[in-house]
């Protein structure tokens, strides 16, 4: 038994998802059981700091340096809260897998800069504060191998959701949307995966701007408005939508600067705020459907995950446009809310067991690589029985 904690903070910047799972096996023998999952919200002040650090116009090196450690303490607090609620001690846990908080993602030498990505939330702080080994920086090695550094979740999607009889798309709708296409009877090398464009990020921004809410709960606001056609047409001209895969994106392309530019491009004051939310919700749906029909073409079933799967209006749009079976993770017995935190815990388990876990057909990397950086616990807290991770790893080495 391997007890692992997964930490995820995405482009929505709403807070940290933390899960405790029991993992059995590794590679294609992986299975897991969710023991406990929690969400912890970022304060408005911390969210503002992350937004500022993610802006070319507003960030500075001192601010990023400080925020790296501040987020490390924030992630540590989430781990401690999770352990308390799960009634576990630090010495019970084999490792923590932390995605970190992305503040910049720049694959493919955009704007004449080196391909690069930066997720902050100091792993040394997490390891010191919790006394638990930490796996972090999952995206860097894939970019070093010539990939986009994203999406990385497809490896886990394949392990958990491959289907012998159907061509399945797993669509995550977080701040950014991303898909994993698993053809029936396909191998890991047959996967197609990519970011589809904005998920909740742009919707959340206008909901906050015009309604002072964090998000459109259930899609209720969007359901009351009408499409602003000139705005939707301008949004659909964004070059990322028709860009060939593999591809990934983030706040750099669909964040505040771009949203303001789009709103300023038309006489936005003549429209109702509900219409603006409706239009951005349709934009998210259109970007998803476009990727399916342009790059996937043959699919039988869609499985939705992430916060966007709780937006009933967005889900309704997808069902109407796709005209096939569209399910949520809950429909299949999984939890949409913790999908990515669970995925990174499983990716951490692959790293600990020295297994490659990127999917070159999804990221564009030149080869499969072992992902992540391991930060050892700074003092001994491991349990001394024969169920620890080291015993299992040593046994595995003997088998080969």
Distinctive features:
Nucleotidyltransferase, domain 5; disordered C terminus; kinase activity; alpha/beta; 7-stranded mixed sheet; 2 domains; 400 residues; 5-stranded mixed sheet
Mind explaining what this structure looks like?
With 400 residues, this protein is of the alpha/beta class. The chain folds into two domains: 2-148 and 341-399, Nucleotidyltransferase, domain 5, CATH 3.30.420.40; 154-338, Nucleotidyltransferase, domain 5, CATH 3.30.420. The chain contains 15 helices and twelve strands. It has helices at 44-53, 61-86, 123-130, 138-144, 154-161, 201-211, 229-235, 239-242, 251-254, 256-264, 273-296, 312-322, 339-352, 360-363, 389-399; strands at residues 2-9, 15-24, 31-41, 95-106, 116-120, 134-136, 168-173, 176-182, 192-198, 301-305, 325-328, 373-375. Strands 1, 2, 3, 4, 5, 6 and 12 form a seven-stranded mixed sheet that branches. A five-stranded mixed sheet has the order 9-8-7-10-11, with helices on both faces. β10, α12 and β11 form a beta-alpha-beta unit. α6 (201-211) packs antiparallel against α11. The radius of gyration is 21 Å and the shape is globular. The model is unreliable at 383-400 (pLDDT under 50). Pathway: Cell wall biogenesis; peptidoglycan recycling; Amino-sugar metabolism; 1,6-anhydro-N-acetylmuramate degradation. This is Anhydro-N-acetylmuramic acid kinase. ATP binds at residues 10-17. GO terms for molecular function: ATP binding; kinase activity; phosphotransferase activity, alcohol group as acceptor. It is an enzyme of class 2 (transferase).
């Amino acid at each position: 038994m391997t007890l692992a904690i997964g930490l995820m903070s995405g482009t929505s910047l709403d807070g940290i998802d933390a899960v405790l799972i029991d993992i059995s096996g590794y590679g294609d023998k992986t299975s897991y059981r969710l023991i406990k999952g929690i969400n912890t919200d970022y304060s408005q002040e911390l969210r503002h700091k992350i937004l500022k650090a993610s802006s070319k116009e507003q960030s500075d090196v001192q601010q990023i340096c400080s925020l790296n450690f501040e987020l490390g303490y924030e992630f540590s607090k989430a781990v401690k809260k999770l352990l308390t609620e799960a009634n576990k001690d630090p010495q019970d846990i084999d490792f923590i897998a932390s995605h970190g908080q992305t503040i910049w993602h720049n694959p493919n030498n955009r704007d004449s800069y080196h391909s690069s990505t930066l997720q902050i939330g100091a792993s040394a702080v997490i390891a010191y504060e919790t006394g638990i080994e930490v796996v972090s920086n999952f995206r860097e090695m894939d970019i070093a191998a010539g990939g986009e550094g994203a999406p990385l979740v497809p490896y886990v999607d394949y392990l958990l959701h491959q289907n012998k009889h159907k061509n399945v798309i797993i669509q995550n709708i977080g701040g950014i949307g991303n898909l994993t296409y698993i053809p029936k009877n396909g191998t890991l090398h047959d996967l197609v995966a990519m970011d589809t464009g904005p998920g909740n990020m742009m919707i959340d921004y206008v909901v906050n701007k015009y309604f002072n809410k964090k998000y459109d709960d259930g899609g209720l606001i969007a359901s009351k408005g009408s499409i602003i056609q000139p705005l939707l047409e301008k949004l659909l001209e964004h070059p990322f939508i028709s860009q060939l895969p593999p591809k990934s994106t983030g706040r750099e392309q669909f964040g505040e600067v771009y949203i303001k530019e789009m709103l300023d491009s038309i006489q936005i004051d003549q429209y109702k705020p509900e219409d603006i939310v409706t239009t951005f919700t349709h934009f998210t749906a259109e970007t998803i459907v476009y990727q399916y029909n342009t790059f996937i073409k043959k699919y039988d079933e869609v499985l939705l995950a992430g916060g966007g799967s709780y937006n009933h209006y967005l889900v309704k749009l997808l069902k109407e446009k796709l005209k096939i079976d569209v399910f949520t993770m809950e429909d299949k017995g999984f939890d949409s809310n913790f999908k990515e935190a669970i995925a990174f815990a499983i990716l951490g388990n692959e790293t600990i067991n020295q297994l490659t876990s990127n999917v070159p057909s999804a990221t564009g990397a030149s080869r499969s690589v072992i992902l992540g950086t391991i930060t050892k616990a700074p003092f001994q807290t491991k349990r001394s029985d024969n169920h620890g991770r080291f015993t299992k790893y040593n046994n595995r080495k003997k088998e080969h």
